[in-house]
């Protein structure tokens, strides 16, 4: 019984949990979502650029994209965050002031963009070559065909992987605390850790973990839902003359795409 009592007091002290709840909601959760959302948006933009460079026929674009991807995927996330957060602190102070908050977002964005770039590249390259060939047969240029037909299909196919990446960013946002955030900028982990030090038990950290689960578990099930739905959609039997059908489908939407040229 003593062991069980100690276990409950260490991890399930509800008084300590309730005491830290307002900070977790008003400060930790808000900052975690801001950091994660900002890093995801920037990561998606940079990731698309990296993906397009990675599939380019020019090796002057392909090689830098490959180096960028290998670099930020190969380094541990905490190392990247510390190198950027501490290495560019002096420059950041002139722009953002003393807060390392923006540098934490930038570091997470660079890490995320390397993974998201690979996700986009795989999605774009999974689109059947017949789609691009049909577009070219209809007189569309390479760039226009990619932007209006191929890339949108590739993005749709990798939506579950993108949600998975957002989940990873939410969890990696806890590493930003190593940069020494201001009190008003603390994320879930830092709020829970500070409260755990003050109370002398780990219940506030357990409460912070509950908030991470509230964010990530529904998203995980959403990923599974999308993945199953897309897989079911791709199981439909293809028509015998799939190439002709692709041309007919593209011919139907061509007036909307090229209407300004006719």
What is the compact description of this entry?
This protein has helices at residues 2-11, 14-54, 59-74, 77-87, 89-96, 101-125, 129-137, 142-157, 159-172, 188-199, 203-234, 242-258.
Radius of gyration: 24 Å
CATH topology heading: MetI-like fold
> Averaging pLDDT over every residue, what do you get?
84
- Extract low-pLDDT stretches: 246-250, 252-262
- Give the class from helix and strand content and strand pairing: mainly alpha
Largest sheet: none
Helix content: over 70%
Oligomerization: single chain
- Please tell me the CATH architecture by its name: Orthogonal Bundle
- The CATH first-level class comes to Mainly Alpha
Strand residue percentage: under 5%
Shape: globular
Q: What separation lies between the terminal Cα atoms? A: 83 Å
Domain count: the total is 1
CATH superfamily: MetI-like
SSE order in H/E notation?
Answer: HHHHHHHHHHHH
Organism: Arthrobacter burdickii
Transmembrane segments: 20-50, 71-89, 101-120, 166-184, 204-226
Membrane topology: Multi-pass membrane protein
Keywords: Amino-acid transport, Cell membrane, Membrane, Transmembrane, Transmembrane helix, Transport
């Amino acid at each position: 019984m003593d062991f069980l009592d100690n276990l409950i007091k260490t991890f399930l002290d509800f008084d300590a949990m309730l005491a830290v709840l307002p900070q977790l909601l008003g400060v930790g959760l808000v900052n975690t979502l801001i950091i994660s959302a900002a890093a995801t948006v920037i990561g998606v933009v940079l990731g698309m650029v990296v993906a397009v460079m990675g599939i380019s026929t020019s090796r002057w674009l392909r090689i830098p994209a490959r180096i960028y991807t290998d670099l930020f995927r190969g380094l541990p996330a905490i190392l990247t965050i510390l190198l950027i957060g501490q290495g560019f602190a002096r420059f950041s102070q002139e722009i953002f002031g003393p807060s390392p908050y923006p540098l934490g977002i930038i570091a997470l964005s660079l890490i995320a963009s390397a993974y998201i770039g690979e996700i986009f590249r795989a999605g774009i390259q999974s689109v059947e070559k017949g789609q691009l060939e049909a577009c070219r047969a209809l007189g569309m240029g390479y760039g226009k065909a990619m932007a209006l037909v191929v890339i949108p299909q590739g993005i749709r196919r990798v939506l579950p992987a993108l949600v998975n990446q957002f989940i990873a960013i939410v969890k990696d946002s806890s590493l930003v605390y190593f940069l020494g955030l201001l009190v008003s900028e603390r994320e879930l982990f830092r709020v829970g850790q500070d409260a755990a030090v003050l109370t002398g038990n780990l219940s506030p950290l357990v409460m912070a973990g509950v908030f991470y689960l509230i964010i990530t578990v529904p998203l995980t099930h959403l990923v599974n839902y999308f993945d199953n739905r897309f897989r079911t959609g791709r199981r439909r039997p293809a028509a015998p003359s799939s190439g002709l059908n692709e041309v007919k489908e593209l011919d139907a939407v061509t007036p909307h795409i090229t209407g300004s040229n006719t």
